[in-house]
Amino acid sequence: DARVTQTPRHKVTEMGQEVTMRCQPILGHNTVFWYRQTMMQGLELLAYFRNRAPLDDSGMPKDRFSAEMPDATLATLKIQPSEPRDSAVYFCASGLGAFGTGELFFGEGSRLTVL
Amino acid sequence: AQSVTQLDSQVPVFEEAPVELRCNYSSSVSVYLFWYVQYPNQGLQLLLKYLSGSTLVKGINGFEAEFNKSQTSFHLRKPSVHISDTAEYFCAVSGDSGNTPLVFGKGTRLSVIA
């Protein structure tokens, strides 16, 4: 059963620490998305890739967030330094084909708490 | 740019009663519309989608939605809900011929009461 795998599932860290979240998209999928979910803002798109190339990361705070795809099986989202306002659930999703017509498959999320 | 408004943040309903979750969208171009469901501590799963054709779309778990272009709505319905339908439901929109990522609404929490 193909699925998107995210690690870690839970992370508690202190303000100022570096946090790296990892995502393994479904094999063969060529689009990858990072979303952040909070009670106040709902689901916000942070960044997305097609064929490993970053297409848009305008949803991310550029000074502290970075997203990369070192290879087709791994996407990373890094926060350095982390702040309490970064506390949220971060979702990775992958898909195939056009961004807006195909089904997105979501991982179970990485719940980040920054103290 | 597209946007989505889910008019109700919470909807409580008794088991076996019908339910409608409302979604309105805003777009200057043709749109594609989606409903996703999120069960506790899980990621989102696709319920149904409207790309073209019949405005009444049937999805999984007995849900259906109707695209109404004049009212810019895509409301989700189920004639009889079960306890297992308790979840968060997200409406999403994309435009520009599918070349833009999905924009999600803030979600509606459906609570089914026994």
Key features?
heterodimer; A: 115 residues; mainly beta; 7-stranded mixed β-sheet; 4-stranded antiparallel β-sheet; 11 strands; B: 114 residues
- Largest contact between chains: A-B, 22 and 25 residues
Report the β-strand fraction of chain B as a percent range: over 45%
Q: Helix- and strand-based class of chain B?
A: mainly beta
Uncertain parts of chain B: none
Number of helices of chain B: 0
Distance between the termini of chain A: 36 Å
Describe the structure.
The complex is a heterodimer of chains A (115) and B (114). With 115 residues, chain A is an all-beta fold. In chain A, 37% of the residues are buried. The mean pLDDT of chain A is 93. In chain A, strands 2, 4, 5, 6, 9, 10 and 11 form a 7-stranded mixed sheet that branches. Chain A has a 4-stranded antiparallel sheet with strand order 1-3-8-7, with no helix packed on it. Chain A contains no helices and 11 strands. Chain B is mainly beta. The radius of gyration of chain B is 13 Å and the shape is globular. Chain B starts with a strand and ends with a strand. The model of chain B has no long low-confidence stretch (mean pLDDT 93). In chain B, the strands form 3 sheets. In chain B, strands 2, 5, 6, 10, 11 and 12 form a 6-stranded mixed sheet that branches. Classes of the chains: A mainly beta (115), B mainly beta (114). Chains A and B meet through strand 5 and strand 10 of A and strand 6, strand 10 and strand 11 of B.
